[in-house]
């Protein structure tokens, strides 16, 4: 490379950096930006209020499912591929992560990475039907694949290898220290969100969104749909895998239940609650969901009922997320407080 | 000048209907040529076959000497054949700039965009189709005329050698038609081979020096617009539709 083109490249990088700086500055002044920053600061301060393992555990569960829901939102919201089998990636990584920790004594982070990468391989596999199927057919196909995984892992014939209904248990937690565990999950959530949002804003994200808006048009623009759809599935599966591995460690084990369609529905409901194609909305949806579940934990039937109602509402009004109108109300209150 | 597109004995059937029937023609590099025929003649189907969106039952299509029959659409685009659609298509939630960027991110578009950066290259194209002041808005709020321009811009992002325009004037006012006409003439002057359909001959009459006429999937004739307008079969095909010069 010539010196000239090098210096030109440097100039471009500088321009880009200052561009993203001013973007961040503008973002932090918007309502959504402020709300995000306040929530992040709040999350950082939680362990100062309580070091109780149980309470922190609720937050940790919500963070794990934020990542899981965001992985679904990435695929559905950005690429338009609606999967009802997101639990496949979540579950397989949960199993692989647990296996490597329990039987091969690998450190948790290495096991988690391996688990997530196996998730990516499944993303590639599950992505293949997505090349031919659209809309509800893709949803159905991915759901059936999830059920196949569920019954395979549950099957007594495979018990010697897959662990049967017991799965894998007695996995050590990430850390004995609850506060440390909390912060590790917080870092995982923030990093995952930043990466997913960054991909969404990148050129590759633009291509993903073009496939979502008009796949025939994207192909007419010279885009290799096969390649991009598979990449989207693999990225989505990676983050679902991170969530699945963290979930297994948090619960100190994993069983075939993680492959249930219910878990895929969790991701869909949480992402839709916060607003599709927003990524960060997934956190909102997940916290909302887990706090509500906690409130009604004495009456598990009620929480199933509420879940069903939310699911119906989401299907009916999913486009902008259920929480968006609530957020807008919140913005009015915010403006009122500031005397605007 | 060599042959850029060679279509031989092309046939496409939909059930019992033969939409394109043993159709053959050639286009030379740098030509400006029209494909006419009344509604339902099979023009769009011919474009769908050339661009790979449909597979022919028989026949071959060669672009630049290379057999592209039945190839994946995106591969054909990346060889240098871009198309627009009779019914406008756009990426509804992306800005106009991003609508164009997508084609600039195709493997063929990338090669040109590399030197400039994708955004810069896309804005140049947006400017050339007269939409640069709307770069940051999504296409859902655009008037139909602008959507037709956007279509052409999206095709240009892939840096085509051969541009297939399916009814580029459809649904436009006379003023809007003139704007698109100027745009197409400019593209042709820049060296792009232009092949366009129209079901109203008048629109193509003063624009292209050569016209291929088809009817019920069959080739009828190939000549200047004046010759075609005098052809008996063409006149009969349009008879009662009052569309030839309408
Ligand atoms: N996908 C399709 N399925 C069945 N018939 C089709 C399809 N596309 C076109 N046709 C039929 O093929 C014939 C040619 O259509 P088309 O190529 O759109 O004509 P033109 O573009 O000249 O108006 C018409 O009779 C049309 O109804
Ligand atoms: Mg047509």
Determine the structural class of chain A based on helices, strands and strand pairing.
mainly alpha
| Total count of helical runs of at least 4 residues of chain B | 10
* Mass-distribution shape of chain A: globular
Based on DSSP secondary structure assignment, what is the total number of beta strands of chain A? 2
Short description:
The complex is a heterodimer of chains A (340) and B (246). Chain A is mainly alpha-helical. Chain A is 79% helix and 1% strand.
Please render the helix and strand layout as text:
The complex is a heterodimer of chains A (340) and B (246).
Chain A: H1 3-29, H2 31-49, H3 53-79, H4 86-104, H5 108-130, H6 135-154, H7 159-162, E1 168-169, H8 178-201, H9 203-213, H10 215-220, H11 225-250, E2 253-254, H12 261-274, H13 281-295, H14 300-317, H15 323-337
Chain B: E1 3-14, E2 17-28, E3 32-36, H1 43-50, E4 58-63, E5 66-67, H2 73-79, E6 81-83, H3 96-104, H4 107-113, H5 118-128, H6 144-156, E7 162-165, H7 174-189, E8 193-198, H8 201-205, E9 210-215, E10 218-223, H9 225-230, H10 232-238
Parallel strand pairs in B: 3-8, 3-9, 6-7, 7-8
Antiparallel strand pairs in B: 1-2, 1-4, 4-5, 9-10
Bound molecules: adenosine-5'-diphosphate (ADP) and magnesium ion.
Adenosine-5'-diphosphate binds at residues 14, 17, 19, 37, 39-45 of chain B.
Features:
heterodimer, A: 340 residues, mainly alpha, two-stranded antiparallel sheet, globular, B: alpha/beta, 6-stranded mixed beta sheet, 4-stranded antiparallel beta sheet, 10 strands, 36% helix, binds adenosine-5'-diphosphate, binds magnesium ion
């Amino acid at each position: 490379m010539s010196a000239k083109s090098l210096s030109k490249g440097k100039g471009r990088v500088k321009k880009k950096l200052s561009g993203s700086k001013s973007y961040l500055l503008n973002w932090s002044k918007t309502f959504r930006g402020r709300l995000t920053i306040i929530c992040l600061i709040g999350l950082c301060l939680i362990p100062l209020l309580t070091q109780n393992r149980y309470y922190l555990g609720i937050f940790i569960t919500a963070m794990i499912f934020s990542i899981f829901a965001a992985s679904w939102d990435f695929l559905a919201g950005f690429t338009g591929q609606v999967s009802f089998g997101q639990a496949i990636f979540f579950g397989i990584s949960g199993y692989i992560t647990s296996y490597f920790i329990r039987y091969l004594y690998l450190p948790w982070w290495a096991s988690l990475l391996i688990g997530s990468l196996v998730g990516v391989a499944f993303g590639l596999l599950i992505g293949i039907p997505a090349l031919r199927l659209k809309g509800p057919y893709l949803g159905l196909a991915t759901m059936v694949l999830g059920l196949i995984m569920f019954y395979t892992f549950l099957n007594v014939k495979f018990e010697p290898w897959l662990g049967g209904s017991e799965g894998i248990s007695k996995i050590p937690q990430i850390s004995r220290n609850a506060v440390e565990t909390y912060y590790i999950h917080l870092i995982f959530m923030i990093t995952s969100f930043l990466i997913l949002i960054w991909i969404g804003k990148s050129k590759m994200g633009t291509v993903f969104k073009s496939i979502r808006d008009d796949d025939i048009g994207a192909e007419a623009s010279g885009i290799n749909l096969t390649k991009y759809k598979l990449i989207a599935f693999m990225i989505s599966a990676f983050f679902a895998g991170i969530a699945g591995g963290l979930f297994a460690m948090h619960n100190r084990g994993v069983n075939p239940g993680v492959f249930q369609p219910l878990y895929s529905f969790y991701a869909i409901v949480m992402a839709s609650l916060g607003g599709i194609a927003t990524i960060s909305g997934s956190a909102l949806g997940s916290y909302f969901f887990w706090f509500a579940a906690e409130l009604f934990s004495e009456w598990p039937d009620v929480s199933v009922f509420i879940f069903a109602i939310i699911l119906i509402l989401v299907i009916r009004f999913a486009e902008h997320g259920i929480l968006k109108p609530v957020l807008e109300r919140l913005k009015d209150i915010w403006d009122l407080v500031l005397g605007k | 000048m060599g042959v850029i597109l060679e279509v031989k004995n092309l046939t496409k059937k939909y059930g019992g209907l033969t939409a394109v029937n043993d159709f053959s023609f050639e286009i030379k590099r740098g030509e400006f040529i029209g494909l006419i025929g009344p509604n339902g003649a099979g023009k769009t189907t011919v474009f769908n076959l050339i661009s790979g969106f449909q597979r022919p039952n028989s026949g071959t299509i060669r672009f630049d000497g290379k057999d592209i029959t039945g190839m994946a659409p995106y591969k054909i685009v990346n060889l240098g054949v871009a198309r627009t659609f009779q019914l406008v298509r756009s990426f509804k939630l992306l800005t106009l700039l991003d609508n164009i960027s997508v084609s600039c991110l195709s493997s063929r578009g990338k090669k040109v965009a590399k030197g400039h950066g994708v955004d810069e290259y896309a804005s140049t194209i947006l400017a050339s189709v007269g939409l640069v002041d709307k770069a940051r808005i999504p296409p859902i709020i655009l008037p139909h005329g602008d959507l037709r321009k956007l279509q052409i811009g999206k095709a240009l992002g892939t840096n085509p050698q051969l541009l297939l325009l399916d009814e580029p004037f459809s649904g436009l006012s006379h003023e809007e038609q003139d704007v698109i006409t100027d745009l197409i003439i400019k593209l042709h002057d820049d060296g792009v081979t232009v092949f366009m359909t129209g079901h109203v001959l008048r629109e193509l009459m003063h624009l292209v020096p050569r016209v291929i006429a088809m009817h019920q999937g069959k080739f009828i004739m190939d000549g200047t617009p004046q010759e075609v307008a005098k052809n008996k079969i063409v006149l009969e095909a349009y008879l009662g539709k009052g569309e030839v010069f309408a």
